[in-house]
Structure formats: structure tokens, C-alpha cells
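Researcher: Here's a chain I'd like modeled. Treat it as a single chain, no partners, no ligands.
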Amino acid sequence: MQPDALDDQLIGQLVDRARASGLQLTGTGGLLQQLTKKLLESALEGEMTDHLGYEKHDPAGTGSGNSRNGVRSKTVLTEVGPVEIDVPRDREGSFEPQLVRKRQRRLSGVDEMVLSLSARGLTHGEISAHLADVYGAEVSKQTISTITDQVIEGMAEWQNRPLDPVYPVVFIDCVHVKLRDGQVANRPIYVALAVTVEGTREILGLWAGDGGEGAKYWLHVLTEIKNRGVADVCMVVCDGLKGLPDAIAAVWPQAVTQTCIVHLIRASFRYAARQDWDKISKALKPVYTAPTEDAALERFVEFSEAW
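Model: Modeled as a single isolated chain. C-alpha cells:
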């Protein structure tokens, strides 16, 4: 599919919608609600497994004296917004969830936990250590191990899900998250976000890198996205990392590589004193919001004359 085969007006609408909504991961309107629900429910299911002593649907539970008894819905308030979760119940009513306690309505630190535990490439030890921090010292190592296994299983389902064959716009960036495996260290988390052909927003995946952000690792990430069914992308929005356009072209040869507006503006600041940054940012806005290339060039001439 050629990039110009998609209606220009549709691309414009999608990019405008993405820019207006920010495509943020966290906060109100962020993209992590569904992923937060998946992670919390996986951890709670691991707690129930530890409480009962057998896996869900395991014949070992027959005649054990206690068993699973459905779920109850509950809405918790987090940094990524309100999230409705299904909390498992047991017949005896003796199950006391630890991650989301009874009558607890607000959870803190969820955004970092979800980013950390949802990324492909983390070791079992890293995930286990992070969950041990979340649960605290009162939870045994065996319980943490059971919960870790359940979380890994739940995340693997999300990480390997098939994707759409075409995305008009894909945003890629790298964020850094603190992870513990013996000691706390910053790890780069590679993030791929997309606007679908219906205009909705979707997280394509999260990947944990070993070092700094690099085009070689991005090539690995983009190749995996393609292997999950994404045959074509019309536009990839990214920062100015050296070698990244070549990596994008190697995976989707017809894709347009668009440098992120935020990174372009930041690059412009290198040529100005700090006290002028705010004025320059406002003066550049008519350039990158112009409806046509000719109009953008006119606005840029005006900017050049003013600065």
C-alpha cells in the first residue's frame, strides 16, 4: 500500500486527532487503562492460586474444601485513570487480596508498574523483584513466584496478540523506567503507539532494552511489529535518532518518516537563549500547523524575518 494511496484528508485528521489528544501513555485519557486491567487481574489471579494451592481448572482442587467462586467488579482510581477490574472470589470468603485490598479505591505507582511489567525482554527475576517491591515484605517468596508466573502468562498473551495489517500513523519513542534486579537501575522501555484506520489509539507494544536508545534495537522492535501482521505503515513519527529512518525504511520501504514536532522544536532551542524558548515555541506553531506546504513556507519566512 503506497502512502499516497490513503486519502490525504484522512491522514491529516488522524494526525490532528493524535496531536490534540497527545497520545499519552499515562494520565486521564492515557492508553494504559486496558493494560493496567490485564496486569492487575493477572496478579490477583496469582494471589488466588497461591491462596487455594492449585491452578484454575486444576483437578487437584476437587474436594479441596474451597474453590473459586466467580468474580466481583470493582473500579480503582490510578494515575492512568479509573480502571474497572474483576476481583476473584472464593467460596469460603477467606481470600484477602493484597494488591487491591477490600474497600481500597485508589492505587498509586500503577503507571510505572505497568510500564515495567508489560515490556517484552524482562527476565523472570526482574519481574519478580519488582512485584516483591510492590507487595512488600509481608508476602512470601513463594507467593511472589506464583504471582510472577501468572503476570508473565497474562502479559505474554497481550505481547503476542495479532495487529492490524495497516496503520496510518505509528509513533515510536523511548522512556526510562527504574527496575530492580539486585539493584535499582534505569532501563530504556521502547514504546510503539499507533492511530488505527478507524482513528482510535492503540499501544502496539513495549520492549525493555539493555542500554541506551539505538537504531539497531529499533530495527528489532519494528521487525517484530511487522511479523505480528503489520504489512504497511503510512507514516512513522519519531525523534531525530541517527540511523532510525534507515531502520524504518528497511521494514516498511514506502513509509514516510516524520520527525516529531516536539523534537524539532527542542532542536530549534539550541540556537537561542533560554529566555527566548517560550517565544520561539509560540512563533513556530503557525509553521507546523499550516494547512499546506506553501503556507508553511510562508509562515517560516515570517518566522525567519522576526528572529
